[in-house]
Write a structure and sequence with these properties.
- The complex is a heterotetramer, with 2 copies of chain A (about 140 residues) and 2 copies of chain B (about 400 residues).
- Chain A has a single domain, classed as Sufe protein. Chain: A (Alpha-Beta Complex), CATH 3.90.1010.
- Helices cover about 40% and strands about 15% of the residues of chain A.
- A 3-stranded antiparallel β-sheet of chain A has the order 1-2-3.
- In chain A, a hairpin with a 5-residue loop joins strand 2 and strand 3.
- A 7-stranded mixed β-sheet of chain B has the order 2-8-7-6-5-3-4, sandwiched between helices. In chain B, strands 9-10-12 form a 3-stranded antiparallel β-sheet. Chain B has a two-stranded parallel sheet with strand order 1-11.
- In chain B, helix 3 packs parallel to helix 9 and helix 4 packs parallel to helix 5.
- The chains are: A alpha+beta (about 140), B alpha/beta (about 400).
- Chains B and C meet through helix 4, helix 5, helix 9, helix 10 and strand 11 of B and helix 4, helix 5, helix 9, helix 10 and strand 11 of C.
- The complex binds pyridoxal-5'-phosphate (PLP) (2 copies).
């Protein structure tokens, strides 16, 4: 069901854990739906993401998207990190099954939530970043089985 | 890859080689259509008759009360839709439970769209139907009570004899979806006052794609699959002879082995339950401890999600299943786990392991050993566990 | 006993050994449920996908337009009942023919009891649908045209492309029961504007108890067997993996062999027809001479009754079938033979011989030799023949 | 489907043919239903059936019941022949499939029709014999398949 990339990131997740003195932390999803993603970002004075870590409660795709998105944002500026969309995450994982697309949305939201937290803590406004929704909505109609 | 440890026998079972051997001649040699009149078809005919008898024997029915179908889902659809149609003039109310298989639930929802009224009974925290609520739900318009013999997820065995008695006293037909119970526990349609019963071949080490419906003589339902005159004109379609033969043989083996199966497999089951309860914290057994299928183990492990558990078990060669939303293909976790009162987040962390008489103690022990590691690994990356520990501290 | 001469391939066919070989691993080894998420089930999943592709290929469909069922009868029931339900708001009128299989006719009769209106088109003396009558039968309330691709008794092949064109022009769904045609003649769902198509595995040397329904993308019918989420949520029930695999393989073989099959078998068929017509008096070929399945031969022999003919053929090891009342299990002879205008007493004397690519010229010749003796023997004891000869004299 | 007895009588039917100077001939059934039985009886001055022959258009059971009933009536008086009922015919054949019971009725009727013809020709009345129906009615609902 999953691509090799997904399985690799699920079995050997990169950057699991917490960052004690994180610049921003974002938690998205909810336990009711079976997916919670928490992302920790360490951002330096130049607005470059030095380190990203995550903890995730969720399925294989949720763990894999968390893992790869921590890799994808590391070393990027905040503006570049905003371009790590769910599409980009999916592509980097060589695709996700249709029923799992929402996991990649979750990853995008987790990055945004962590950045929002960072912006709030620092009293700044990040262009193009909206306040993260409290919950991830599920619009996709399952096309496949 | 590791050796395969197959603990998903509630999903499907390995076809037993003894069963396959009995099926084999009916593929390429004795391939005649049992409805044909030439003697070449006599073997096929006799084989179908024999299977009918083997199956009738397992549940104390008469041969001509057994009808072959393509599986449990078809039998369930048939029982409900044809009863609704045939007894329409008597009433439009059906009673079932919240923990039925989707083959029952989705059929009931379809019937509701056709104007029937369905009561979905609650169950207690162990998954047992509450008999007083069943009695209270009965109306003058009630034409059918359909309650499963044993639940496919949590293994709870329902009080069939008592339900049958209530149905009989109220002159209401009683159907039971026995797909998980058939061949796994003792069922007698007369003693339990069962009027219709669904079963499926592949849950008892028989072939896939074949099932039966028991219909008590006198129950006046029509066909679900209309067409040719097969099965006493009640179920059309060329007989699937090899599979029918296989289901018959599997039923006979199940009957012969039932005592030993019950003893050996429930012992393994209890060992598995005990080790998990003793060695894995924040775990909870689902389903009734006593009224339970011999082969069913179902646990919820807090703070983690079922699919990741399954994938990591799979890495170790262990096959299990989960009621998490991710594996059900919907957004909600198993309706059964919700019906026994579990909150969503707990239900997402469920694991079902279902044994067979081919399961060994070594396999069970290996599974627990690996499961322990997997659960602590997943908890270590769970934000829920992080929060829980933080709160505890 | 004599060597078996199996000439009832329209009833069912011998499972080809090549097909059985491909099915074999899925019984006792790769028995996983394709809906499961562990890698042990990957083989089952891939096998079902492959079969879907093999079948789609044979009829020019897309893979995700193929749905697995338990056989032709279920597919026919599904097509008619679910279309009636889904398009109820558009109309309640269905057009079919008088020569359909009972899986269609009895389903239509059931629909009539539910308030639908069904037109049963006449056919001409060769069993061909009259296109002008089809056009005339169309009403604003017509939601479905269901016409078989080829008739199972007399082998007549209907003008699918022209029917499809009429359906399309009138924006009416077109279903075809292709159980006898699938793999026997060329069918392309796009070129023929077919919206739904039923087929069965065991008519093409595949396994019994498995079939397919082709449903064109965009056709909005719901389920017939409700339950689990299998088959894109449209057909519930654990996948019958070995049989699905077998049907896929049989479809692929049929496609590869179609040209050769058509050439060789229709040559044998024509030889059989010619010998009977030349050597047996008072015989009449039923069905269209040109638009005919490559493997179908159907004759009426006057003054005698079909069942006795079959028993005497059986004594010689020859398997055939008849449309006589005695073999249909009803009091009337075949509705198909009556629909092409045969009087009852003629229809009772029908014999259908259906060949396969395994049939040899020797078998065909032996059959005619024996048939000649059988028919003169039966005529010698027939009071009808006695009267006829008396009148002639 | 058929008992050995039925198959024997079908494969080796006794007394097939016509009796030129028959004392009575009876034809029952109709071609529409697929069964016609014609029975010829030769009856001596003592009212004893000396010879019985038949011709039948019909299924295996129709031929077998015709055959055995010619055997059963031979040597019997008319009154005894009236006791060759469909039940007796069925028993003598070790049973018939449920859908074939009407064939044994046909045999009973054929005997009656031939006797009626004999009675008419001789201007006598046979006690207990009613005018045969022109056709055999089919009341049986098929119980088995
Ligand atoms: C034309 C036609 N339709 C439907 C069917 C039913 O197919 P099955 O017996 O596989 O259900 C048959 C075969 O008997 C058939 O010949
Ligand atoms: C309780 C119950 N009912 C019905 C079914 C459906 O059976 P099948 O998949 O054989 O159609 C199943 C199996 O999945 C089941 O466990």
């Amino acid at each position: 069901m999953y691509s090799e990339k997904v399985m690799d990131h699920f079995n050997n997740p990169r950057n699991v854990g917490e960052i004690e003195d994180a610049s921003g932390v974002g938690t998205v999803g909810n336990a009711k739906c079976g997916d919670i993603m928490r992302m920790y970002l360490k951002i330096d004075d130049n607005g470059v993401i030095q380190e990203a870590k995550f903890k995730t409660f969720g399925c294989g795709a949720a763990v894999a998207t968390s893992s790869i998105s921590t890799e994808m944002v590391t070393g990027k500026t905040i503006q570049e990190a905003l371009e790590v969309t769910n599409k980009a995450v999916m592509e980097a994982l060589d695709g996700l099954p249709p029923v799992k697309v929402h996991c990649s949305l979750l990853a995008e939201e987790a990055i945004h939530a962590a950045l929002w937290d960072y912006a709030e803590k620092n009293g700044i406004k990040i262009e193009g970043l909206e306040k993260p929704k409290a919950d991830i909505s599920e619009g996709e109609e399952e096309e496949d089985y | 890859m590791n050796k395969l440890i197959y603990l998903d026998n509630a999903a499907t079972t390995r076809l037993k080689s003894e069963v396959f051997d009995v099926m084999k001649p009916y593929f390429c040699e004795k391939y005649g259509n049992p409805s044909s009149i030439y003697s070449f078809a006599d073997d096929s005919k006799a084989a179908v008759d024999k299977a009918r008898n083997q199956i009738a024997d397992l549940i104390g029915a008469k041969d001509n009360e057994i009808y072959f179908t393509a599986g449990g889902s078809e039998s369930d659809n048939w029982a409900l839709k044809a009863t609704a149609e045939a007894y329409k003039s008597k009433g439009n109310h059906i009673i079932t439970t919240k923990i039925e298989h989707h083959a029952i639930l989705h059929t009931c929802q379809w019937l509701e769209r056709q104007g029937y009224e369905v009561t979905y009974l609650d169950v207690d925290e162990n998954g047992l139907v509450k008999l007083d609520e069943l009695k209270k739900a009965i109306k003058p318009t009630t034409i059918l009570i359909s309650i499963m013999a044993a639940n496919n997820e949590i293994g709870t065995v329902e009080p069939l004899a008592q339900i049958g008695k209530i149905a009989k006293e109220n002159k209401i037909l009683f159907h039971t979806d026995a797909v998980q119970a058939f061949g796994h526990i003792n069922i007698n349609v007369d003693e339990m006052n069962i009027d219709m019963l669904s079963a499926s071949g592949h849950k008892i080490h028989g072939p896939k794609g074949v099932g039966i419906m028991y219909i008590r003589k006198g129950v006046k339902i029509g066909s679900f699959v209309h067409g040719g005159a097969q099965e006493r004109k009640r179920r059309a379609g060329t007989h699937n002879v090899p599979s029918i033969v296989g289901m018959g043989q599997a039923a006979q083996i199940a009957k012969e082995n039932l005592e030993e199966y019950t003893k050996n497999v429930s012992k393994l089951r209890d060992h598995l339950i005990e080790r998990i309860e003793n060695e894995i914290p924040y775990s909870k057994l689902n389903g009734d401890r006593k009224n339970r299928l011999p082969n069913n183990v179902n646990f919820c492990f807090r703070f983690i999600e079922g699919e990741s558990m399954l994938i990591l078990l799979d890495n170790k060669g262990i096959c299990g299943s989960s009621g998490s939303a991710c594996t059900s293909g919907s957004l909600d976790p198993s309706h059964v786990l919700l019906a026994i009162g579990l909150p969503h987040e707990i239900a997402h962390g469920s694991l079902r392991l279902t044994l067979s008489d081919e399961t060994t103690l070594e396999e069970v022990d290996y599974t627990v050993d690996e499961l322990k590691k997997i659960i602590s690994r997943l908890r270590s990356m769970s934000p829920l566990y992080e929060d829980f520990i933080a709160k505890e501290a």
